[in-house]
From TrEMBL:
Gene Ontology cellular-component terms listed: mitochondrial inner membrane
Ranges where the Letm1 RBD domain occurs: 43-128
Protein name as annotated: LETM1 protein
Organism: Daphoenositta chrysoptera
Bilayer-crossing regions: 58-81
Subcellular location: Mitochondrion inner membrane
Molecular function terms, GO-annotated: ribosome binding
Its membrane topology: Single-pass membrane protein
Keywords: Membrane, Mitochondrion, Mitochondrion inner membrane, Transmembrane, Transmembrane helix
Signal peptide location: none
One GO biological process term: intracellular monoatomic cation homeostasis
Main location: mitochondrion
One Pfam family recorded for the sequence: LETM1_RBD
Length: 132
């Protein structure tokens, strides 16, 4: 059924708590990676991507904190997320948003593959016509 206002607020607070907790864990791991970099060790590709994502999340956190700190400004958060969808740190994304983003990427890749296949077929037809 429908959730009460108290349950909605509790769910939102839990979501924020989980997001900040995950961001804190990512920040600690990133700090260890930076320490390793400063001492001459080389990061793997996966570690480098995680470090870059965490740094980007920390930079995105600054405007996001304004919405959390200023009273009643969190009601404007959905409007700003519609205008700037990448403003939210990755640890605060819901599963449905992650799935939606993956579907968009997959559709774009499929369209690109379809375009490339059609281009290759057209080039093959032209080459066949030129040689035949």
């Amino acid at each position: 059924g429908k959730k009460s206002l108290r349950q909605k607020v509790a769910d939102e607070l839990k979501h924020y708590y989980d997001g900040f907790h995950l961001l804190w864990i990512d920040t600690k791991v990133a700090a260890r990676m930076v320490w390793r970099l400063l001492h001459g060790q080389v990061l793997t590709r996966r570690e480098r991507r995680r470090l870059l994502r965490t740094c980007a999340d920390l930079f995105r956190l600054v405007p996001f904190l304004v919405f959390v700190i200023v009273p009643f400004m969190e009601f404007l958060l959905p409007v700003f997320l519609k205008l700037f969808p990448e403003m939210l740190p990755s640890t605060f994304e819901t599963e449905s948003k992650k799935e939606e983003k993956q579907k968009k990427k997959l559709n774009a890749k499929l369209e690109l593959a379809k375009f490339l296949r059609e281009t290759i077929v057209e080039m093959a037809k032209r080459n066949k016509a030129d040689t035949g």
